[in-house]
Amino acid sequence: MKVLITDPIHEKGLKALKEKGFEVEYCPGIDKDALIKKVVDADILIVRSRTKVTKEVIDAAKKLKVIGRAGVGLDNIDVKYAQSKGIKVVNSAEAPSDSVAELTIGLMLSLLRRIPEADRSMKEGKWLKSELMGRQLAGKTVGIIGLGRIGKKVALILKAMGADVIAYDLYPDKEFAHAHGIEFCEKLEDLLKRADIITIHVPLTPETYHMIGEKEISMMKDGVYIVNTSRGAIIDTKALTKALKEGKVAGAGLDVYEEEPPGDLEIIKFNNVVCTPHIGGSTIEAQEAISTILVDKIAKALEEM
Questions:
Q1: CATH fold for domain 2-93+284-303
Q2: Catalytic pick among 69, 114, 149, 231
Q3: Minimal CA–CA distance to 225: which of 180, 187, 270?
C-alpha cells in the first residue's frame, strides 16, 4: 500500500512504515494542487496541522482508506466527510501530552515571574532587580478548562507545586478529580469568577470557537492570567487584546493563534504576553512518539477493515 506524507514526521515513523512494508512517498510542504494530484493513488494519507484535508482532497483520493493525523487536533480534516466515504481517521493525540503540559506550566511561570522581561533586560545590560517583582504559583487558584489527557497532566504538576486546582469539563472525570483533590465547577462561569490563572485544554469545534470572549473575560477576576496551548480560535483575540490593554487581564501565555503564523498581530508585542510559535508538541520525545504511535494506529485500522 502507498502512504503519502505531506508534512514532516520523525524519521522513526518513516522507518516504522517501511518496516511494515508500506511504499512511502514523503512530500513535506507540498501545496494544495500537488496534494490533489498525488493523493489520487494513495491508500494512506499522513498529515500534521498544515495540510488541509478538505472535501476536494478527499474526492480526489480514489483509493484512500486511512487518514492519519500526526498529533492532536483534527480541525484541519473534514472528518465527517471522510467517514461518509468509508475512510478511517486516526491521530496520535496521546503522544505530546507531557510536552504540551510542560510548556503550559512554563508559560505560567514565565508570566508570574516575568522571566522573558528579566532575560531581555539582562541582555541589554540592565539590572532591574527591584522592578521585576513577580508572583508565585503556590497558593494560586488555577482553573483548567478541559480536563482531558493534557489537562490532567497540567493538574498533577500544579498540585505538586502547591496550587489549588479547579476544573470545568462537559464530561467530568470525577474519580480522577476526587483522587487528586481537584474541584469540578458545574458551570464555566463559576471557574471564570474564581480562578487567578486560567488554562485552556479543549479541542477546537463549532461549540468551542471563541468560547472565551468579551462576556467571559468580564466575569473573570481583575488581574487574571490566561494561558492557551490548545487552539487559537478558542479565545477571541480582539477581546483578549482589549482586556490586556485595560488591565483586566494581567498577562497571557500563548502558544496558538487564530491565524498561524500570526503576522503583524498587536497582542504578541505586549510586554505582559509571553508567546511561542505553536511548539507545544515540539520536543524530541514527543515527535518520536507522535510518529510511531500513529503508524501503529494506521496498521490497526487497516487490520480492522
A1: Rossmann fold (3.40.50)
A2: 231
A3: 270
Please provide the average confidence, as pLDDT, over all residues in the chain: 96
Report the candidate in 174, 210, 213, 216 with the shortest Cα–Cα distance to residue 191. Answer: 216
End-to-end CA gap in the chain: 14
pLDDT tens digit string along 268-286?
A: 999 999 999 999 999 999 9
What would the grid cell of residue 241 be?
Answer: 487584546
Is 180 considered catalytic here? no
Q: DSSP letter at 124?
A: T
**Active-site residue flag, 260:** yes
Domain ranges of the chain: 2-93+284-303, 97-275
Judge whether 10 counts as a catalytic residue. Answer: no
Q: Averaged over 76-105, what is the pLDDT? A: 96
- CATH topology match: 2-93+284-303 vs 97-275: yes
Q: What is the pLDDT of residues 128-162, one digit of tens each?
A: 999 999 999 999 999 999 999 999 999 999 999 99
Entry pTM: 0.87
- Output the CA angle 250-184-202, nearest 5 degrees: 65
Q: Which residues are within 8 A (CB) of 61 and not within 5 positions of it... i.e. 6 or more apart?
A: 39, 40, 42, 45, 87
Superfamily of domain 97-275: NAD(P)-binding Rossmann-like Domain (3.40.50.720)
pLDDT for position 186: 93
73 pLDDT above the threshold of 90: no
The active-site residue, picked from 278, 285, 288, 303, is 278
CA–CA separation, 20 vs 22, rounded Å?
Answer: 6
* Active-site residue identified among 11, 131, 260, 266: 260
